[in-house]
Amino acid sequence: MRILHWTESFHPRIGGMEVFVRHLVEHQISQGHRCQIITGALPDQSEFDDSLGYTITRLHFQRSLIARSLVGIMKIQQKVDTLVADFSPDLLHLHTSQASAFFYTRARNLPKALYTAHDGLLETIHTSSSLLEKILSSVVSVVAPSDFVATKLRQLFPTAEQKIERVYGSLPCAIFADRQTDFPSTPYHLLAMGRLIPEKGFDVFLRAVARVHKSFPNMKVTISGDGPEADSLRGLAATLALDNTVHFTGWTQPEAISDLIAAAAIVVVPSLWQEPFGLVALQAMQQGRPVIASRVGGLQDIVEERTGYLVPPGDDDALADAIIALLNSPEQLSTWGRNAALLAATKFAWSDCVDAYQRLYEDMTR
Fold first, then answer.
1. Distance (Å, rounded) from C-alpha 167 to C-alpha 165?
2. CB atoms within 10 A of CB 273
3. What is the pLDDT of residue 13?
4. What is the pLDDT of residues 207-228, one digit of tens each?
5. Which residue, 270, 265, 275, 289, is CA-closest to 344?
6. How confident is the model at residue 253 (pLDDT cuts 50, 70, 90)?
7. How many Cβ atoms sit within 10 Å of the Cβ of residue 44?
8. What is the 3-state secondary structure (H, E, C) of the chain?
9. Domains in the chain, start-ordered, CATH in brackets?
10. CA distance 262 to 258
11. Which backbone phi and psi does 192 adopt, to 5 degrees?
């Protein structure tokens, strides 16, 4: 089967959707499928890339739309049509409803398509989004990576209800559910990972850490990731007198993330926006770490009371209380960590995820 994956961006430093798509494509290739990716281009990326063992075509979708250049838009549309004609895919898997999807709706001779709603469903945007409506009306199937997204899609677009199916997001995991969970003794170590952007709530996390630090002065905190908020977050850490407590790693290679999680006692996901799923939380649970997260979006599907805490978004006092409660109970840390690993291995099994997509693909191409 020839599968064309269409994403908004494809860069390891961007976010969870890119990580998921890369693992999905690599799995599909291992199963004998042929895959290509068409995606938006960033300034530092070449148009064609086959270094990962499959072809990635990067086009300046967003730049052409911002410039409002009809000639530029037509040139990109021609490149899309040529790519589709040359690859001749059996199906298209769309992973975006953002700028590049405009070109999807204009492309010619496309095969049947499936859309995974990785994008956050912001009602102020999507209730008036004719682009998303066009996508939902044109595709054969719509996949929601969480119950939260499935519910929102059905509320916002009731005419597409019969197309919507929930397939939990996942990632392959080499850590077994019965792995012995060893937590750092002292100082206790907190970890937060992700793009350093306002929506991720790292400033809320730092303010919570400042309060926790009063009870646990020897604690360690790691913030892993890069982004436009990096300097301001470092400045906030200094203002809060956390210079010697908080370590900013910058972007971390994917293969090193496991070591970061293994060194932590708790992983914190302080998001302010409605996360469609929450791969950072899942990665932590796969390695037997309890998660404290904001009660938003798909994170509510992942974190349960027996595996961690959910707190109101933006509430640094509630976040600090939850962290302190767990740090004060080493036995609960260990128990919840084991529960987290078991839940990740069952409710969010990678094999269930890829099998569900394979079934949908087969249904589409019959």
1. 6
2. 16
3. 59
4. 999 999 999 999 999 999 999 9
5. 289
6. confident
7. 6
8. CEEEEEECCCCCCCCHHHHHHHHHHHHHHHCCCEEEEEEECCCCCCCEECCCCCEEEEECHHHHHHHCCHHHHHHHHHHHHHHHHHHCCCEEEECCCCCCHHHHHHCCCCCCEEEECCCCCCHHHHCCCHHHHHHHHHCCEEEECCHHHHHHHHHHCHHHHHHEEECCCCCCCCCCCCCCCCCCCCCCEEEEECCCCHHHCHHHHHHHHHHHHHHCCCCEEEEECCCCCHHHHHHHHHHCCCCCCEEEEECCCHHHHHHHHHCCCEEEECCCCCCCCCHHHHHHHHCCCCEEEECCCCHHHHCCCCCEEEECCCCHHHHHHHHHHHHCCHHHHHHHHHHHHHHHHHCCCHHHHHHHHHHHHHHHHC
9. 2-170+349-365 (3.40.50.2000), 189-346 (3.40.50.2000)
10. 6
11. -135, 140
Beta pairing class for 55-59 and 48-49: antiparallel
The amino acid at 30:
S
pLDDT at 32 over 50: yes
262, amino acid identity: A
- Rounded Cα distance between 304 and 193, Å, is 20
Place of tokens 């970061």: 260
pLDDT on residue 176: 44
Structure token digits, residue 248:
């900013």
The confidence band for 136, taking pLDDT boundaries of 50, 70 and 90, is very high
Structure tokens, 96 = 């975006």
Do the beta carbons of residue 360 and residue 143 sit within 8 Å?
yes
Q: At 129, is the pLDDT very low, low, confident or very high (cuts 50, 70, 90)? A: low
C-beta atoms surrounding 46 within 10 Å: 9
Report pLDDT for 285: 95
> Which amino acid is present at 193?
M
